[in-house]
Amino acid sequence: MEKMGAADSQLEDLFEQKKPVRNPLVPVGALLTAGVLTAGLISFRQGNSQLGQKLMRARVVVQGATVALMVGSAYYYGDRFMVSKK
């Protein structure tokens, strides 16, 4: 039982030291992805398959950019967290 208490204490210390970091561009990217997806689905439903196809391709690009932002910010802030901990 003592070991569990020590582990919990260490975890609490870790989470207290780490400040929550948020990248405001990630939610913007997610909203853009959802907006382009919605517009594409509406285009397909209205019978404009050429525009719908272009919007689906744009969705893939926007979604890729959002994922790249998430990975980049996790790498950047994760690296800064490790440096500040030393």
From TrEMBL:
TM region(s), chain numbering: 25-44, 56-77
One Pfam family, short name: HIG_1_N
GO CC terms of this entry: mitochondrial membrane
Subcellular location: Mitochondrion membrane
Keyword Disulfide bond: no
Keywords (A to Z) from UniProt: Membrane, Mitochondrion, Transmembrane, Transmembrane helix
Region forming the signal peptide: none
All residue ranges annotated as the HIG1 domain in the record: 1-86
Keyword Glycosyltransferase annotated: no
PROSITE patterns, A to Z: HIG1
Name of the molecule in the record: RING-H2 finger protein ATL48-like
Origin species: Phoenix dactylifera (Date palm)
Gene behind this protein: LOC120111318
